[in-house]
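User: Could you write out the 3D structure of this protein bound to Phenylacetyl coenzyme A? I've included everything you need below.
Assistant: Certainly. Input first, then the structure.
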Amino acid sequence: MYAQMVKSTGKGLKSRKEMTPEEGRFQDRIDAGEKIEPKDWMPDGYRQTLIRQIGQHAHSEIVGQLPEGNWITRAPTLSRKLILLAKVQDEAGHGLYLYCAAETLGVSRDELTEALHTGRMKYSSIFNYPTLTWADIGAIGWLVDGAAIMNQVPLQRTSYGPYARAMVRICKEESFHQRQGYDIMMKMANGTEAQRAMAQDALNRFWYPSLMMFGPSDKDSVHSAQSMAWKIKINTNDELRQKFVDQTVPQAEYLGLTIPDNDLKYNKKTGHYEFSDPDWTEFFEVLKGNGPCNRERLGARVKAWDDGAWVRDGLMAHAVKHSAKIAAE
Ligand code: FAQ
């Protein structure tokens, strides 16, 4: 179902000798830490890799509204409802900044949307899991936004200017999102027996899918080497996953909740936690479209797009009338 829309090099890294003079000068700029801007020359693979990553990122923000949106009408208090509404609205904004950043690379918003709807582009695996209880909203804020921040903070230093700048604002907002999630978890973990059990259950279900957000292990990561040479990615998938575990385990301990991993242990020598890998077979199945909610999520996006056709048609008709009026003046 999910063939990739655009392939980056996929052929391994070019040595300096193999690079054309233009590619060599481009790599020098990257190595010197310069930002690449939309009108600058760039290798086609760099452009295509960015379109793939930024587009996938944008789609994730948009599809990511669905699991949380599921709880807006059922939030336990008016205050929680307002906060969740604002958070979901922020995610829509993040999607828009990212689509704009992708557009600077010469791809249209319609092309990206079409690629998502026909399964040629991906969105984050995490959003194919259901939100069964209110505690899941806490777990998403705490773990999913926590993982998103861990991945996105380094992306503020990514080599492509428009992407790096979009990340600055997104990261600020994601920090609030993470706090609201942790705040929900604190309330639940310190609540009644039933609430505590709900919080533990949410952690049990979201732990491994959150670890999967960082992508396959480094040995299976197709794009990391080239993306890191181009400074599109700053860290490998495993580096970020480790940082996330190191940050999150003490937070779970503070909540009095148990990470669902019997092999989790702190290694004093390395200063890092050792942990079990997620089930990579499950991860690749989700990527193929076979996760618990893939069909539902994509179906909801396609329906929203079709239902909104009259709004787009109306806006286009208005724009045509408006420009005709200006031309006649
Ligand atoms: N899900 O070679 P790599 C958020 C694919 S934002 C689906 O390692 P790469 C905010 C990958 O595309 C969350 N597919 O790939 C929020 C490739 O397939 P392809 C989104 C995945 O690109 C919170 C193949 O596997 N964040 O959550 C995933 O170098 C709460 C091989 O992998 C971003 O997108 C996955 N988890 O590294 C919203 C951050 N992982 O395309 C609402 C930007 C890998 O060749 C509520 N993206 N794949 O067919 C990145 O940093 C990178 O793209 C990675 C993957 C790290 C995700």
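The two ends are 51 Å apart (CA to CA).
User: Perfect, thank you.
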